[in-house]
Amino acid sequence: MTVVTPLADPSRRNRNRPNWEEPPTAAGQTGKGVVLAIVVAVVLIPLWMVVLTSLSTQTAVNKAGGMVLVPDGLTLAAYKQIFTNQLVMHSLLVSLGITIVGTVISMVVTILCAYGLSRHGSYGHRLILMVLVITMFFSGGLIPTFLVVSALGGYDSYWSMILPTAVSVFNILVVRAFFSATSQELIDAAAIDGAGHWRTLWSVVLPTSRAVTAVVALFYAVGYWNTFFNALLFLPDNQKWPLQMVIYTYTLQGNAMPGSGQNTTGQYFGTQEITPLAIQMAVVTLTLVPILLVYPFVQRHFTKGVLLGAIKG
Amino acid sequence: MTALHDAPPASLRAPEEKPVKKNRFRRDRSLLLMVVPAVVLLLVFNYAPMFGTATAFQRYSIYAGFWHSPWTGLETFRQLFADPLFWSALGNTLMLSLVQLVLFFPVPIALAMLLHSIMSNKIRTIVQSVVYLPHFFSWVLAVTIFQQMLGGAGALNQFLRQNGIGTWDVMTDPDTFALLVTSQVIWKEAGWGIIVFLAALAAIDTQLYEAAAADGAGRWRRMWHITLPGIRGVIVLMLVLRLGNVLTVGFEQMLIQRGAVGRDAAEVLDTYAYFYGVVNANFSLGAAATLFKGVLSLLFLLAANKIAHLLGEDGLYRR
Prior knowledge:
The structure holds 2 protein chains of 2 kinds. By secondary structure, chain A is mainly α. Chain A has helices spanning 26-54, 58-64, 77-83, 86-116, 125-137, 142-151, 169-180, 184-192, 197-205, 210-225, 229-234, 243-252, 276-299, 304-312. Chain B has helices spanning 10-13, 21-27, 29-52, 65-68, 75-81, 84-103, 106-116, 121-132, 139-150, 155-162, 177-202, 206-214, 219-244, 251-261, 263-266, 269-279, 283-310. Chain A: Keywords: Cell membrane, Membrane, Transmembrane, Transmembrane helix, Transport.
């Protein structure tokens, strides 16, 4: 395209800005900047306060009157406390276990199913696709699901945290859209070299689909890590609880945590250098950290292609 | 303009001669084998409960189980419709949904348009990574964070107390509960919601803007005549999906906060089904409430889709 009219001094122009567009006004730029800064602050400041409070001394928390915004006396005492708390540590292991085992199962099932449905004109794939998609629009709902899982012995057992939610049809469709787009020549070449479907999936399709598998694995992992309602429903015993249940019971509802040195009225006995609030925030931080650790590596794949493929169906 | 229909179904794309059925089955048996685990899981945990909804027409007893519980016809539904708490839950659900539709739905669209207008890739990427983040937190975490910010002992009231303005425990105030819930949904999901709209915005042909600019259209006129019509299809699609879910308002979100704010404000259809179905072990009543919700949701979805068609959009599926 040729230059229409030079509307502004080209030297001040952002190189992304097409040259037919008006130069930005100062007021407009400032307004946008302020709005975006507020949006970012609204997300990040609460997280900052949670993490900071978990690291603050009793004096700092008391001086702030609760949540701490400005660092003022830091200590790891809250973490020492929760890392010796049997209930918190066990729930951390349970959450990690559910997340790892669950994600592996989900990914195997999802990738196999997505590949099985991704070859054009294969036997019965339309019918199977229909069987899958119907579950996106109809569901038995809470009570019948509860009764089915209970009848299969899922009550008070860990598999009820994983198997009922192991398949996400949405995720299958996302992966399938990617697999379908894998170059047919590549697959034909593999077939000529004598590769069967299993071999093709493993050595041709999967290596070219790392972005989509990373994103879908993150979706599954986050889902398992955040497991709350299924635990409330199926795990009556706090010895089996995942982390989210511990936060719900002891931070949100404010019950006294066993073995935390806190009595039932929520007050501490003995001399403590940390407050219950710091301990609660340390547990909250514990659930936050894995997400914050994994997120940056996967986040760059959230491009339009990965997610919009799913809407196509 | 919707992304729904760009690719024809695979079966339409494969005009090559079809081998005999039996041979195709043998040829594709390893593909079929791969599908088995997913299908089995769906049959057990999705299809079996679908048929288990029949419990709504029984007087279900745990001891008798599904096969031996007595069938009672529409008795459960009579009981359900006679329960004022059910109607209150339905009312709350619709009210919360409506507030969210008005206050939440436009936010991701506006945010996406704002972000799209930012030229610097760096700023755009940073803002995107920040606003997507809360989507990955559990509701337990999100509500805990809100409690620490707005609750009786939270940051807001610390500030109010220190300045002697009195206190306002937002977390337990039933009068403003709808606004609280909506602001939580905005905090957690508005950022994630922009992805779809950003993709739609990126798909608009830039030559349209250039031509309009050459014809003298300023940035606001270009927004009104090019940008908004360009993403209209996606907006309508998201609206149709939202209307189909009008009876679903964040189940875990409500469940967690029902205790603090009280049943009158926070009971929705899903929590009603949970508390009367599972907690009070009136399984048939809970199943009936869920079935009622499911049927009504489907009607809403079809109606919304019909309206989309009347507006000349594709909606969920093509006419």
